[in-house]
Amino acid sequence: MKFLEKWERQLGRLSEERFYLVVLSVLALIFAVVAINFAIGLHRNFLTIACDTAAFQSAIVNTLHGNFFRDTAYDGPNMLGLHSMFIVLLLAPIYAFWPSVDLLFALQILAIYSTVIPLYLVALEILRRPLPAFLIAAAALVSPMFLQMAMAPFHPESWILAAVLWSYYFYLRNQPRAFWISFILAVISGEQAALIYAALGIALLLSDDGIAWRKRYGIWALAAGAGWFLFSTGVLVPLMRSPDQHNLVAYHYAGWGLESGASDRRIETASDLAAAVPEDPFMALTLLLNYNRWLHVLGIVGAPLLLAFLSRRTLILLLPFPVYFLMSSQEFFLGFHAYFYEFAFLAGYLALILFLKNWEVATRLGMTVLATTAFLNVLLASSVVGHYGELWGGENAPLTDALHDIFDKIPPEAAVYSPHRFSAYLSNRTDMVMGDLREEKLDFNSMLESRYGTTNVHSDQIEYIVCDLQNDQCGWRQGGYKKEDTKNRADNLNTLLQTGQWKVFWSQHDVVILQRKGRDNPK
Fold first, then answer.
1. Does the pLDDT at position 462 exceed 80?
2. How far is CA 33 from CA 104, 105, 106, 107, 447, in A?
3. Which one is predicted more confidently, 244 or 418?
4. Residue 454: closest CA among 66, 65, 67, 73
């Protein structure tokens, strides 16, 4: 009883604004903890995509060992050759305290659900009413975008939204130092943040909200956003990219001109794309107005996306859309990477706030819009839960427990060749190369040497080879089963054993681990 009386006295001292902030923070933490348990369960059962997580963990571990941004998993050898993710420098010391991929998943999900805090504060600043601000943030808490990003592999880009909302809050409060700190945190999490700030800068310059310092912040956001994007994509990434490494611009926009026959131009840079679009405007319109793509984004952001078209400021915030919708033949990435559309979430929920400011949340229209937003979010998030819930059908507890137990026995200093399926939990080392053994009559040494340009790992450095005979990919194990692939993997393992350089370290449940001879078994 004394505890309850003390708690009631503490609540009595809270202002209404702080009361809702405390309630929202508790709710966000609860949602995050539930999502963490759900997501880590999927990851530990190898039911979700692992390769991206492996690449980031490889870069973090190598950075801790003095090889900054080195990525041996795939598409390396330097992460800065793909993305301007200096956030690795901040993550590395945190990871050092708890060197586990599960920490990365937990940090990601906590950051995602913390987004509702700056969203509440922004709504509070604009509406000046705590309850409506709380209801907007609470509706966002069940957003399908949050859930989809939470279940995805580790990606620092999913933290950008929270940082941008903090920037907007600090703009409203005229706190330039805090604005720049949140800007830096956003852009070092991924170059796409720069596009959001550039659009925000244009929006502030072209739409008057009555704030005296609006133009100053608009110039800052536009100049810094555009400048960082040009630096990262035009200078840093090309400078750090190795000859064998992926050119992401060429990869994402590979079909431009070539598919329609309008041009033989090969897209290598953003300027190439800008030049190619006028040469084939029909293809551009076809991609930009793709019905299925718009429905997908609406399903991720929810009803607020529609409101974004009703306000000049929020319509301008949608300017990054062409960067993604002009991607050709990349439907998987557009559908899977929910973090692509963080700018749309920002535009949508800012539009919702402005709509409720203009129409009053207490009116029938205001309550209807807010209730519709929450209801559709729950409905859309339920489909996401259902999708990932189905993946649980592929859970195999005996196999999972056995694998994690044996993975822990592989020395962290040992170089490992791992299938995609297990890569997230084997990339906690400086040298982990991701790949399979399903090619017929595979020459393992030649294959690894041919990939040295993207891994910086020679074949003779590999000390353990992990092979799932049934399926090298994540998800339901039987989902990717092919009889001929299983036969090829078994044949290639036998070929390696016949060289006399390898021995069987572990073999259960159709998973085989080879160990290079000359190294004692770990205790």
1. yes
2. 14, 11, 8, 11, 42
3. 418
4. 73
Buried (b) or exposed (e) across 483-499, using 16+ Cβ within 10 A?
eebbebbeebbeebeee
- Please, which residues have CB within 8 angstroms of residue 188's CB and are 6 or more apart in sequence? 84, 85, 86, 87, 90
Residues sharing a CB contact under 8 Å with residue 358, sequence separation 6 or more, in sequence order: none
Enumerate the H helices of 280-415 as residue ranges. 281-288, 291-301, 304-307, 312-316, 321-325, 331-336, 342-359, 364-391, 397-407
Which tokens in the block code for residue 63? Answer: 């950075």
Asked if 230 and 440 touch (Cβ cutoff 8 Å), the reply is no
Quote the distance between the C-alpha of residue 450 and its chain's center: 29
Tokens of 390: 């189905």
Helices (H) and strands (E) in the chain, counts: 27, 5
Amino acid in the structure at residue 8: E
| pTM of the predicted structure, to 2 decimals | 0.92
CA–CA gap between residue 396 and residue 378 (Å, rounded)? 30
The pLDDT confidence band at residue 6, using thresholds 50, 70 and 90, is low
Amino acid in the structure at residue 159 = W
What pairing do the DSSP bridges indicate for beta strands 415-418 and 432-434? parallel
DSSP codes joined into one string, 255-274: TTTTTTTS--PPP-SHHHHH
Which DSSP letter does residue 461 get? G
Lowest-confidence region among 85-89, 204-208, 388-392, 513-517 = 388-392
pLDDT tens digits, 334-359? 888 899 999 999 999 999 999 999 88
Which H or E run includes 62? Answer: helix 51-64
Beta strands 502-508 and 511-516, pairing class: antiparallel
To the nearest 10°, the Cα dihedral for 42, 44, 48, 50?
Answer: 150
